[in-house]
Amino acid sequence: MDSGSHCPRCTCDRTDSGCEQTPASSATTDLLRSNRAPSSAEFAIIHASIGEIAEEIQLIDMESKRLRRVLADLDIRQRKIRFDSISQRSVLSARRRLPVELISEIFMHCLPLRHNPSPAGIPWLLGSICQLWREVALSTPALWSFLDINITARQDTKAYHRAVDAWFSRSGNSRISLKL
User: Fold this and answer.
1) Which residue in 118, 114, 173 sits closest to 142, CA to CA?
2) Pseudo-torsion of CA 78, 84, 86, 87, nearest 10°?
3) pLDDT over threshold 60, residue 47
4) Are 81 and 107 in a shared domain?
5) 82 and 116 assigned to the same domain
6) What's this model's pTM, rounded to 2 decimal places?
7) Number of structural domains, the chain?
8) Distance from CA of residue 99 to its chain's centroid?
9) CB within 8 Å of 141: residues ≥ 6 apart
10) Residue of 152 and 71 predicted with greater confidence
C-alpha cells in the first residue's frame, strides 16, 4: 500500500475518522518502534495520557457494570413475563375444557395390569397432579377397584394398612378385584 492510505499520525490502515490514535499513542508507537527514551515533552504527554486512559477505563468499567445490572433486570423481567405467558396459555389449554367424564376415562386407560396401593400407584399419582385431577381421581371409584396386596414386601405395615383402607374407601360401590 502507498503511504497515502495510512493514518498520518500512527500509520494504521484507517484513514477515515475512526482512527483512535492520540498524540500520546502516536508518540508511544514511535518510541516502541525506535526503542529510544522519550523526550521531556513526550514524557509529559504520555504521562498525562496514562491518567486519561485510567479514567476512561474506570468509566468503561462503571458503564459495563451498569449495563450488566440493566441486563440482569431485563432477564428477571423477561422470566416473569414468560411465566405469565405460560400461565395464561395453560388457562386456555384444551385439557381444561375436557369433560370430567372423559378425563376419568383417560385415567382408566392409564392403569397398569397390576395395581398396588402404594403412593407411587397410578391413582395416587394422577391425584397428585392438580386439584381437578385429584377430584376426578377421587370421584372415579373404578380407578380404585383393582388391588394387589403384598404385605410381606412392606416395611411400614401401618402406613400400608392406611393406604389399603383409603384404596377400599375410594373404590366406593365398585366391584373390587383383589389379588393377594
Assistant:
1) 173
2) 160
3) yes
4) no
5) no
6) 0.49
7) 2
8) 33
9) 170, 171, 172, 173, 174
10) 71
User: What one-character-per-residue DSSP string does 69-109 give?
Assistant: HHHHHHHHHHHHHHHHHHHHHHHT-GGGGS-HHHHHHHHHH
146: Cβ–Cβ under 8 A, 6 or more apart, which residues? 111, 115, 176, 177
3-state secondary structure at position 35: coil
Q: Is 74 in the same domain as 128?
A: no
What is the distance between the alpha carbons of residues 25 and 95, in angstroms, rounded to a whole number? 68
At residue 67, does pLDDT exceed 60? yes
User: How many C-alpha atoms does 50 have within 13 Å on its Cβ side?
Assistant: 6
For residues 87-109, give the mean pLDDT.
91
Query: Which structural domain, as residue segments, surrounds residue 76?
Result: 3-90
Whether residue 145 is found in the same domain as residue 74: no
> From CA 93, how far away is CA 10, in angstroms rounded?
65
The answer to whether 149 and 178 are in contact (CB under 8 A) is: yes
At 55, list the grid cell: 479514567
